[in-house]
Design a protein that fits this description.
The complex is a heterotetramer of chains A (318), B (102), C (527) and D (224).
Chain A: H1 2-7, H2 18-51, H3 68-97, E1 104-111, E2 114-118, E3 124-126, E4 128-132, E5 136-143, E6 148-152, E7 157-161, E8 167-172, E9 177-183, E10 196-201, H4 203-211, H5 220-232, E11 259-261, E12 267-269, H6 272-280, H7 304-316
Parallel strand pairs in A: 1-5, 4-10
Antiparallel strand pairs in A: 1-2, 2-3, 5-8, 6-7, 6-9, 9-10, 11-12
Helix pairs in contact in A: 2-3, 5-7
Chain B: H1 12-34, H2 40-60, H3 68-92
Helix pairs in contact in B: 1-2
Chain C: H1 16-20, H2 25-53, H3 64-100, H4 108-127, H5 144-147, H6 152-179, H7 192-224, H8 237-271, H9 278-291, H10 307-335, H11 344-367, H12 369-375, H13 379-409, H14 415-441, H15 456-486
The chains are: A alpha+beta (318), B mainly alpha (102), C mainly alpha (527), D mainly alpha (224).
Amino acid sequence: MSSASSTASHFMPFAATKIAAGVDSLYYFLLVASFISCVLVIGGLIWFAVQYRRKYEGQKTAYISHNTALEFLWSFIPFVIFMVVFVWGWIVYYQLRSMPENGLEVAVTAQKWNWTFTYKNGRKSQGTLTVPIGQDVKLIMTSSDVLHSFYVPAFRNKQDVVPGRYTALWFRAEHEGSYNLFCAEYCGDQHSGMLGKVNVVSREKFDEYLGTEPYKGLTPVEIGQKVYGGACIACHGLTVNDVKPLKLGPTFYMLFGRKESLADGSTVDVDEDYLRESIVNPNAKVVKGYDAGVMPTYAGQLDEDEIMGLIEFIKTVK
Amino acid sequence: MSSGGHDSHIPLKTYFNILVALLILTVVTVAAARVDFGAFNTIIALGIASAKAFLVLGWFMHLKFDDKIYWVMFGTSIFGLVLLYFFSVLDIYTRIMQISPL
Amino acid sequence: MASAPGVNYLNEKSGLWSWLTTLDHKRIGILYMISVMIFFAIGGAFAMLIRYELFAPGSQLVDGATYNRYMTFHGAIMVFMVIIPGIPAFLGNFIMPIMLGAKDVAFPRVNLMSWYCLMIGATVAFISLFYNGVDTGWTFYTPYSITTKNGTTWMVVGAFIIGFSSILTGLNFIATVHKLRAPGMSFWRMPLFVWSLYSTAILQVLATPVLAITLVLLLMERLMLVGIFDPALGGDPVLFQHFFWFYSHPAVYIMILPAMGVVSELIATYSQKTIFGYKAIALSSVGIAAVSFFVWGHHMFVSGQSEVAGVVFSFITMLVGVPTAIKVFNWTATLYKGSVKFDAPLLYALGFLFLFTIGGVTGIILAVVGVDVHFHDTYFVVAHFHYVMVGGTLMAIMGGIFYWFPKMFGRLVHDGMARLSFVLIFAGFNVTFFPQFILGANGMPRRYFDYIPAYESLNKISSIGAWTIGIGFLVGLFVIIHGLLRGEKAGPNPWNSRTLEWQTPSPPPHENFITQPVVTAGPYEYR
Amino acid sequence: MSTVSTNHGEHHHAHHFDSAEAEYEASKFGTWTFLVTEILMFGGLFVGYIIFHQKFPEMFHAGSKFLDWKLGAFNTVVLLISSLTMALSIYYAQHNDKAKTLFNLYVTLICGGIFMVVKYFEYTHKIHMGLLPGALFNPQGAEAEAAFAAYSNLGMYFSFYFTMTGLHGSHVLVGMGLIAWCIVRTHRGEFSSKYWTPLECVGLFWHLVDLIWIYLFPLLYLIG
């Protein structure tokens, strides 16, 4: 099984869980079976067409209306194959969806367009999920706006995140590394920018990550930079060119201290208070040229240290 | 088309009888709704409604005297609805989650 | 009643008004042909823009919001205005009554009304362009489609009206098949194209009303937040997907079944051989139509649908594979000991079989629930349904157009040019969509305006292929125009086919036949 | 539904049918096919209603308390009677009795009108109490406010109520239009024992509208 998954990295991404390798085995079986049936059907098709090409006009053809035995056979054989792959797929699906009893539980909140992960000890992380190697991890997911989908190709696992209810997904990573996390259910303008990472680290590193204060020893600016990288980066850029249509929100470049024209025609001085308001109540003062209702509120998502850090970080973007 | 005379052979009296039956069933369904049968409330109400529907279909719409294909068509549409209901409910009532509210 | 020689449906009356008020199924078929071709050009233009944007990571042409509008319009136009009416309402309208030996469809006015429904619906849908477009994707998933502020309402109303067009066509075809067959034309003597249209019509009649009510609820949801699909008010967004796919999965077969019918005709005619397993193919059409109502949940394996439902739907989906496989094998067997002539329509039919087989086996891969969890909503799905919809249905439409062109217009197309269009479309198609299987397997989600650099090279290949397809269809259009203007005059039966539509002059007279045909044998009696 | 081209007095069947009999059969067949689509369209709503009824039974019960079952029952009787007169009008057309055909058609039309008037009073009452769908839901008065306090998604019941009865009401209006058209044609003397296809098809449609109400009444007014 494992050899199959390592030789075929061209067809599938790296398999970071055992179940992923199981999915791959089934997929390769399906690929081989598909290839054989395609060769049989398409090969037969081409062979017959060429072999029996018209040699002269008015050529007589055989009158073969049907052949019950043959037709039964080529109905029954696909049926058997379909049932085999169905049952196999069922087993794999059962493994993918049987939730572990004593896993590490992480709450996942999706919103346009980022992921928030909350651990049981209250530690929060934006955009990056850090998990220990070799442990069952159960994600309990919900959305605060529209449908999203939590998709990590390396785990061969995916689950839509539905507002108003919880869905769950579990995995047990067997290889350290940093894996891509995609949003796979269409969710609007920055759907393709709703990316994240799943970092699989050693037990020790994870304990350190979880146990330490998230921002221990960091300056406010560094805290802000981290928050920016998880929460803001999809929509707000750092250079003078990062404006619409590239980014949905205004750039942070030279933002602090300037006079901003608002959609209602007034202007506002960009100071700490304005920035704070724009984070927790983004629709109160919308910058001219941008739309209200695009940015969700971060009240409750970010704590005061993080907001403060973010403001300090924005001050430094010049 | 008079040749078939399909519907003409339902006597007038039958139509009036059907109406009386429908009105009686309406009274019954209202009366039944005033008594609480618990979980059976819906089933009883829908059962009476279906009896009324049968009368309307069979006589007013003269399905009873028509080609069987019309029953098939009507049945198909009901079957489609049963499918929609069955599979939607199959999903909704088998969503199992061992939720920890953290 | 019988027309004078030389008078046919094209020249019996003239003027735009006579076309817009015509009740002749053949003229209505031509109206559909023109409108579907225009819609196809618009939808195709959006496809070209999409592939231009995806040529490289980052923004090439537009921003994400605009890309999402391209993607939505491409999908909605191609599904609702091109592929669903494509074969039934255009080729079916023209050919089916003649194949049955009827003078017209059962309800000619309803037939015309159905075309107007399509046109009005399309117009309403296009009005959304003036209200900042639509960015929901053609699936209108809630709650995004409820909250997004733009022209979605117009698009939903448009789709609702187009749905009626589809219902009316289906209704008409069912009544025609039941009530207007020529003397001697028993069900078991109907050509397979008619069988497939009949199955399609059943689907149109049974499934489309549920779409209609779903769209009504979505409209209510948008206009006054009724809360049935909105979780904020106790509703269930996944229920919307159930209602939507109850229609939209059978709709997939509305799109492919008629194509299978066309291919059956092409294979039989161009190999001059009776079709192998006529009853099996006919019944498998009906069987596919029936089973297609039980399988919609395979679009929802990762949607938050329950695991039990997922497994049940996966199982039933496997059952659809069987009748589909039967058809493919029977077509292949028909070629055996035939007399195969490689005219352009046959090339398109063989292209259909090639691409549809690949689309079919990848469909089975996606139906395997454990594997689909990985492939769901990735480019693998995009590649799969393009293999079926474009590689299947559009190939069949092109083949069907070139096959019945002499019947419709009394002229032959330039076969060499038609073959060139096939080569371009076929080659371009594989270059476009085969890499997308690999992209999907590697995890590239669909509806992405931007992608990580690892996916760049395959996307470049895909875009180049897309432009080749575009050129191929332009060549096809040229072939049609050239055929209309310069094509050689065609006899009544240039392909020596046995079905009824070839037993009447080309183009047919107003009431299709000079004398009422009486059917005495099956449709494929090549002895 | 019918697609016949008619001349005054004697009816000539459309050119593509072999006989008037065949045309009648096809029209009826087409009408039934259309009815199938109607059943499925309403059925989608019924399925949604039943699903949410099972999910929130108390809320639906509380909502149905605001509906007056007496008005609902009255409307049921009205529609049942109209169904009878519709059937009778066809019966009399088949027996060449123009006067009785007309009388029954008029009664049917008036019954439809009464139904809509009652519906109008029901609607204004709901609007007055602020019992409107979804976001428009804004209960007025102690009773409505108390129910809203108990069930925060009470608006969903009225969403279903207005969608279902609204769609049904629009069908009643369409049916009344069709009956009016039949009345005009009866006045012209177009229907007889030889030709009554439009009456038959409109009748089928009208019975279906009745049929749907037969289910709507207990679902909305009685069991709630």
